[in-house]
């Protein structure tokens, strides 16, 4: 299957359909086997002690995996997370954006499974690992909801 959306199309989709958070995230690259997304870390993402909060790391993983799936299936706004598991492995480095490197492991008609490794920019060791399953609505479900 060819790519349905490249990084520019994904960023445009986020800006249009998820304007409330789009300024915090950017898809850096999208290829068939890998997508990289960035959390533009700001004060709103920090917890006491100056580290990036767990919910912010989880949100990056969710946005990045969602975009990795859309890169393959196209702009399906109603695809939703049905299962998620995250391991927080080390403290993110202060003052750096976070990057999520994602792979789609299985892409079916109604479910997609993907994983993301989250890194502090420039660091070799991941700060978190996340796996997620997404439910993909049928074309009929997507069209009736719009």
TrEMBL record:
It comes from the Bacteria. Pfam families: 4HBT. This is Thioesterase superfamily protein. Keywords: Hydrolase. Coiled coil: none annotated. Residues 49-122 form the Thioesterase domain. It comes from Paracoccus haematequi. GO terms for molecular function: fatty acyl-CoA hydrolase activity. SUPFAM superfamilies: Thioesterase/thiol ester dehydrase-isomerase. Belongs to the thioesterase PaaI family.
